[in-house]
Every structure is written in structure tokens, then in C-alpha cells.
Amino acid sequence: MNRQAPQRRLAAGLAAIVSLLAGICLGACVNDDTTLYEVNLSGTIDVAEGEPSGGRVHVEVLHARSGAGTLAYPLRPITDLELDGLGEFAESVLVPMENGEGLVVYAWLDRDGDGALCAPGAAPEPAGIIELEDFPAHELEVELVLTEPCAGPEILYP
Amino acid sequence: MIISSLLGASLLLLAEEAPAPTARDASAPLEAASTDDGAAPASSDTPGNARVGHGRGPAGVPATFTRSTALRARIGVEPSAFEGASGVSSEGRWLASATAGYPWWGVRLQLGLRHGLSPLVEVQTALARRWRPAAGLAMLWVNLPRLRIGGEALLGWLFQSGELGRRGPNAELRVRIAAPLRRVAPYIMLGSQHTLLADRTTVIRAAGEERSWSLRGEWTGWGTVGVAVPITRRVGLDLGVDLTWVDAPETIAIPGAHGGIIIGGFRQDPGASKKRRSRGKSQSRTQSGDAASARAARVMPPYAHTGASLDPVSGGPSL
Amino acid sequence: MLRRWWLIPCALALTCGDAEPVGVVIDGERIPVIDMHLHPGDWDGVPPDTQEFLAERFPWPFKLNPGRLAETTLSADGIVRELDAAGVDVGVLFAVYAPRTVGIASNSLVISAVAEHPDRFLGLASLRVDDWRSDASKELSRLEDALGAPGMVGVKLAHAHMHFRMDDPEYFGIYEVAGRLGKPVYLHTGNSPFPGIAQAPEYTDPAYLEPAIAAFPQTIFILGHLGYDFVRDEIGELDTCIDLARRYPNVYLEPSALGSAGNDPDGEILLTAFERIKEGEVIDRVIYGSDGPQSPGFVSDYLQRTVTAMEGAEYDTEEIRAVLAGNFIKVFGAEAGR
């Protein structure tokens, strides 16, 4: 009997420790906790009337703003898309909600198919940007006209 | 991890060839269990005395010593520091240790049970940014005079803060090899620590939310080379060099070092203190010889004994 | 002429005085060293993604508290210790405004560090380009003010870190200010492994700088990292850099970081770079920089690696002297030196 009492105490102590650990587990399990907001983008990407319209369209989807304090900055990249050409499009993107606010779409027309916007010696290629003011919303309309030659997104926004 | 498990299993099978590990701090003499002063060994049902182990009495009949009878028999008791080195306490003994160093600090409590088992709890921290509380069980597989090999299995939780924050359930397997010598016990400890890290992804769609979980792991390899130094039978020092390869093989690790204190003793039986007080009053000076010899036994080096073998198997000292 | 006046104290400092010997010994001759690429910093000025990126690369257990190590290494005193250990006479500290990527080391931080060790440090100023169409004049004015501080000898830009095109004429006002004030412009060329970097060629390929180089002949352009591809650990646009240096007298080259132990463990890349520079006959355009301090011992190690590569490419003593200090003095007219 005397020998069993210490062993019962030991078992009770171990059970208490395990229970405590299990309780901590419930509140301390998650490491990376990512929330993705699905956005279905649809609309048209075009050039000004009369401008050459051939070539693939490179699209970048970006957060309008990111960071805090002195480390705040505009235009944090989310994802890249490539469209077969100008005109109507419909794409679905997942926007990570922890990384920034707002949503911006930037696009440029790759007329010469070299994969670079206005490479040295190449003819100018148009670009454009639009902020989607209705974000967050699952369905967003994009009407973008590419009018700025050789312009990166950073010079077009805000 | 698999290799250490197989090693532990095979050593356990080998160990079962010999008698079950006994408390190393006392064993019966080859002769009759009666000692010079005529004190008879306590039987297993003797009240008020913690069992310290088995020996062999006349004709090989096992005899059980208690702490008090072992001391009266002037049989040496292994220093707690040596039990700290092997990671397993003998039956009836407890051990607490605290270490400090760079980057690891820790505290550990272990208790000796039968069959070479020691449940334990410990908390480790590195720079107060990485914490791992755990509970587990240690087992002695090999118990030879100059060699102790034991294994430990621990379950706990990892909390790491800062730029590389992470948290999750943690399991560790260890192997300890200790070589108790006359005055010191060098030891090696090898550990394999695994942490499960859970990540959660929530996708918010027009139709609703979807939640998914994914798991990744962090493996930490651990090696310690150290030495346990008894100061007294109950108190000792632990000095060692640690190489902890956290999140291997992604990064490199710089060795650390630690120093610590080990304190151990016997578990107190509920009636022991009362009996000690009554014994102190009635036996007093008539037991002065016993008291003197008991004190002498308590401070004697581990191998000191009066013609009695400490190892029931080999006939030599069990340390 | 004004610039050349500063050569006198610099030359005296490098050749006379009772200071401890500095520099490297080549063929028994001690050659002074100016390291034109050093980063002071403030851990809180690094964005969280980059803090995590850097912490992962620290050895255990320093990665548990990377800010503490970074603050020690990146402080002014820490950098001076690195210079002393390497035998470097003068170091040039870079201001950085790249909140998307590597973070911010402000002009005021650099000006303070230079003021703290005026005999050991010079500085390059920088500016924010985030809201350029609305803030350009304000930022250029701030840049001019910073360049007026003692020891601030040039401008530092990194298009890949700061996310603006190399050939966008809307940013050319920076080169106009630099040329007018006689302050050379250091530009990061090639890509970078840090999170958030703009990797497209218009932000990394030095060929896209040619319009600016041609438009501002009075401005000196220093092409840093020789167009190295830090993502694939390849030579990248080295030949483009050498070609620009051959064709434009206002182009200089700086071989920092590509020859580090992490990028170039066997030294072959740095050796190849110096061989091609020699073949291109542009040794007189190379200005030494390390991109330190990064970690304890990096500044010294990179200097040794660079010297080894130059010796391997059979540079003579005068050519080594030109790379390690002479070309810097020619371009910047150093104000400081022991």
C-alpha cells in the first residue's frame, strides 16, 4: 500500500503534465497561418485606338500598399499572369490577406515577344495600371487601357 | 532515430541475458546477509525503509537491502552524479539537476523505479528564445561496473520565439553512454529530436471558407560529451560540451558548453522520519558505533565496502 | 581642381604618419586599401521577410537572436573593427532606402557614423523613389542636403532593391544632381537573392543603364557587383559591364560580393572576372569594394580573395594598387585617410 501511494502520485503528476501540455497545444499549434482571398478578375485590357495590338499581355497583380511605418511602400507583388492577347479576359487569383491592402492590376503589351518591356533597342511597348477600389470582393471588373510607353508599375502608381 | 531504436532494442535483449539491472548502490555479500555487526537484512516487507536493491544471500537466495541496512553494512552508495551521467536513477532514488551554459540551460527531475526505469521531466531553453518542456522515461540497458548504457524517450512541446518563431509537439530519443570511474563519470549523450510544425491555410471563396492543414518537420541532432563529478554522495557537478544541430541540415551549428549541479537522494517513506526520530531517542549512544559506521559509509567512495561484493553477477564492484 | 586638393591629405595619410601599418603586402610592398562598399545598419530597419531570410542563414545559436549579432556587426564601431582586422584604411558606408527588400539605412545614420569616425569612413547618400511623380523634387532636395554633409562623397542606388527601371528617364534627375555636385553614383547591377527583389532585366541588366550613362557624361556611374547573377551563381552581365566601361569614360566597375566564400567557394568566379577585366583593358576602371561587413571576418576574407584573384590573373603591383585604392582616389578624391 505504501509503495503504491507514491506511484499513484507519480501517475497523477504525469497525467497533469500531459493535460497541461495538451491544453497548451490547442492554443499553440499553428505556425504559418495564411489566409487567401479568392478574387475573380474579369474585363478587358486594351490599347489606345489605332495603336498596334499584337502580342501577349503580361499582367501583374499587386497589393496597393504594404509594410508599416518607415518600411511602408506601394505595390507589393502578388502574382503574374500572361494572356494570349488584348481583349477580354477572366482569371482567378488568390490574394494573401496578411501581406498588404488594396489591389492593383498592371499590364503591358509584349509586341516583339521578347519577354521584356522595352528592351534596349526595341520599339516602345505600352503599359498601364488600375487600382480596383472595390477590393475586397470576390468578383472584380477590370477595364484597363495601356497608354504609357515603357513604364514600370512603380512610376504609374500612386 | 531508427538506428537508435534498433540499438536500444538490441541492447535491451542483451541486458535480459543478465539479471535485471539492480540498484548499483548496494548488493548482498556472497556470504550470508548478516554483517559484522549482526544486523539482519531487512526483508522486502520491512516497513519504513526504501528498498535499495537486491543481492545474493546464502546459497544464492536473493536478499533485499534497505537503505538503513546497507549503510549499517557499510556498503558504499553510488554518487548521485554517476546516476546523472547515466540518466537513470536506481530504485528508490531521485535526482534533480540544473545546468547553465551557452546556449542551453535546463532543469531535470528523475525518479528511480524498478527494472532500471526512471520517469523524468525536464525543461530546456536556449537563450530564453527556444523552450522545450518534456516528460519521458529513461531505461538502463547495460549496467556493468565501468559501463552504463541507457536510453530515453521524451515527449514535449517546442516553443521558439523571434524571427524564426515556431511551435509544435516534440519527441526525442536519446542514448547515453556513461563510464563511471573512481572519481568521475565521463559520458556521451546522443539525441534525435523531432518537431512537427503545423501550418494552416484558409481560402475565402464566395461559396465559403476552406481550411487545410499541412505539416512540416524540424529535426535536431544533439550530441553532448561531458563528465559528472561527485562532490559528495548526494551532490555533484556536470560539465559538458554540446553540439546541437538545430533544423539540420539547413544550417550550421556552433558548439556550446554547460555546467551544472546534480543533487540526488533517497525517496522518503512516510513513516521514515517518525521512525528516525524514535530511533534517535531510544538507540542513541548504544548505536554510536552504528552511527559512526553509517556516517563513514555515507562518505565512503563508491567502492568502499567491508569484504562484500557489490555486484551479484561478476563478484566485483558493480560500479 | 577642387577635387584634386583632397588628394594631398589622402596621399599623405596613406604614405606617412605614425599610424599602424595598413593594407596588403604585394611583392614586399605595402599597398593601402579603400573598401568602397560597406553597409551599416539597424535591425529594426530591415523588413520582417528579410529579417527571417537573414536569420535562417546565421549559424546556430546566433539565429535565435539575429538582431543582437546584426547590431554589433553593423554598428560603426563594429565596422571599424572589421576594417582594422582587414588592414583597410578607409571604408565607404552606404545609405539604403529599399523598404520592399533589404530595408532602410538612412542618410542620417550614415552621416552620424562618418562623423563618429571621420578618419575611417566616407559615405554614399541615397533617396526614396516610392512615390516619385509626387515626391521627386522633395526627395532630390533631401539628397542634395545629404550630399552636403561632411564625408558624403557619392550616391547609392539599387534599382532591383528599390524597384525602379534603369532606363526610366523620369528618374534621371538623380544623375543630374550627382553630376552637378561632382558626386559619383554607385549602382547595384545584376539580380539579388533577397526576398522582394525585382528580377526583371530592366531592373538588373546594366545594358538598361546605357541611356543614362550616355545622357550624363559628367556623371560617373560605378557598376557594382559586375552584373553578377546571385540567384544562379553565374557570371551574369560581366561582359556588358566591361563593354560599357570600354565605350564610356564615365563608367567604372566594382567587384563586390560575387567572390565571397558563399558565392564563389573555389575562387574561380572572381578570377574569371579579373581576367576578363584585364583582357578588356579596363583595370584602371575597377574600384575595390567588399559588400561587407555581413559577418565577422568577411571584410578581411573578401580582401584576401580579391588579392588572390588579381594575383592569379597576373596583375602587377601597380595594377593591384590602382584597384585597391588608386582608382577610388582618382574618382572620389578621398577626403579621409589616416
Describe the structure.
The complex is a heterotrimer of chains A (158), B (319) and C (338). With 158 residues, chain A is of the alpha+beta class. Chain A is built from 2 helices and 8 strands; from the N terminus they run αββββββββα. Chain A has 2 domains: 1-30; 36-156, Immunoglobulin-like, CATH 2.60.40. The N and C termini of chain A lie far apart (80 Å). Chain B is an alpha+beta fold and 319 residues long. In chain C, helix 13 (268-279) packs across helix 14. The model of chain C is unreliable at 1-10 (pLDDT under 50). Chains in contact: A-B, A-C, B-C. At the A-B interface, helix 1 and strand 1 of A face strand 7, strand 8 and strand 9 of B.
Low-pLDDT runs of chain B: 1-65, 294-319
Radius of gyration of chain A: 26 Å
Q: How many strands of chain B?
A: 12
What is the architecture of the largest domain in chain A at the second tier of CATH? Answer: Sandwich
Q: Calculate the mean pLDDT score of chain A and round it.
A: 91
Net shape of chain B: elongated
The whole-number mean of residue pLDDT values of chain B reads 73
Give the strand order, joined by hyphens, for the main sheet of chain B.
3-4-5-6-7-8-9-10-11-12
CATH class of the largest domain in chain A: Mainly Beta
CATH class category label of one domain in chain B: Mainly Beta
What oligomeric arrangement do these chains adopt? heterotrimer
Q: Looking at the structure, what is the overall shape of chain A? A: elongated
What's the CATH topology name of one domain in chain B?
A: Porin
Helix content of chain A: 10-25%
- End-to-end distance of chain B: 29 Å
Task: Spell out the key features of this protein.
heterotrimer, A: about 160 residues, alpha+beta, Immunoglobulin-like, 5-stranded antiparallel β-sheet, 3-stranded mixed β-sheet, elongated, B: about 325 residues, Porin, 10-stranded antiparallel beta barrel, two-stranded antiparallel ribbon, 5 helices, disordered N terminus, disordered C terminus
